[in-house]
Amino acid sequence: MPFFERDEGDMNSLPAECYVAGFRLPGDDVPAARMTLPAELVDRAVLTGAQLSVWLTPRTGRLILDGEGVDDDTLEAALAAGPMRDQTLLKLIDRCLDPDHPSMEDDPVGDLISLRAQLAQALAKVDDALARLQRG
Length: 136
Description:
This protein is of the alpha+beta class.
């Protein structure tokens, strides 16, 4: 039976350091053949092939993970494994404004001015879309 899993030594650490691939005889937990693969190589191959993108739902502001190279079951498993399912635009902004966030280290005033300008542009786009819909 083929298997592919995180290395047993790092089940609680993120990111994974290594993955293990191999074969087990049916009913046996000990691998008959085993190869350790560096997470850097596996993650790069998987994420590159996944062609991930993020979408925003207008009603709730929730972020939706999508992947052109990934089936729906895999995306659902990824969503269930982490906090992505609960991410909203407002939560992202709250996190971005956290004074302890690493992005706020170099030029926090300049960064916030830039963020404010981007948010103003985004709000203008929402207003334009709303006006178009109301005009019919």
